Automatic annotation (TrEMBL):
The record marks K78 as: Lowers pKa of active site Tyr. Keywords: NADP, Oxidoreductase. Signal peptide: none annotated. The active site is at Y53 (proton donor). Pfam families: Aldo_ket_red. InterPro entries: AKR, AKR5G, Aldo/ket_reductase_CS, NAD(P)_OxRdtase_dom_sf, NADP_OxRdtase_dom. This is Aldo/keto reductase. It comes from Sutcliffiella horikoshii. Coiled coil: none annotated. PROSITE patterns: ALDOKETO_REDUCTASE_2 (PS00062), ALDOKETO_REDUCTASE_3 (PS00063). Belongs to the aldo/keto reductase family. Residues 30-262 form the NADP-dependent oxidoreductase domain. One of its GO terms (molecular function) is oxidoreductase activity, acting on the CH-OH group of donors, NAD or NADP as acceptor. Substrate binds at H111.
Amino acid sequence: MKSLASTTTLHNGLEMPWFGLGVFKVEEGQEVESSVKMAIHAGYKSIDTAAIYKNEEGVGKGIRESDVPREELFITTKVWNADQGYESTLKAFDESMEKLGLEYLDLYLVHWPVKGKYVDTWKALEKLYKDGRVRAIGVSNFQIHHLQDILDVAEVKPMVNQVEYHPKLSQVELLNFCKENGIQMEAWSPLMQGQLLDNDVLKEIADAHNKSVAQVILRWDLQNGVVTIPKSVKEHRIKENADIFDFELSAEEMQKIHALNEDKRVGPDPDNFDF
């Protein structure tokens, strides 16, 4: 983990950047296009979007207008809940690819574990993977029992599980389960939508390293072996978020951050969510 170009190797051998840009709630059009271009210009290789974000077209345009070859980038999108099921997922994938304007995708995720549908949805992702249209497949917001359901029937096991993950929700059991099963965990909302930036423990650690609280949290993600994709639309913040490869948190500092856990979510609970 020496730079923005540093990667983790997924269980199928594909290299995935440890750090990327998330575009949840980034407006379609100029805002998302410029956000993607600024990130790529700053050295980001990974961009994460989803069908429900309704900004795939802008992400695709930002990619095309950047000066980095497509094969050097790692692009993720997700199938939305209303489109889950076997045939409908295949159709949704085609629609996403048309909006993105890409010939292949690096990572396709099942956005939420919709009861009664996510196993069929997974079968569709396996087909897309076997057909060579996606280089890796995974899930998002899956708890251990959801993952177990997939592992029980999978011909191709998930390569990634993208979940809400931050110091107030450290999901230790889930992280350990993913590591034991060769599934790379990835953090969404790593900064808890800004709610952690005034935390005294994090401020003290940040001051000791002459870093921001956000940088400390993102560094904590990486040192826990979790891929992270903070969102920003401001150029200085995009650059600052990524400036986390020149310091290391001590074991004691890592433990202090772990101790902040309250199992507190800012997003929906995957077990109690009206899909």
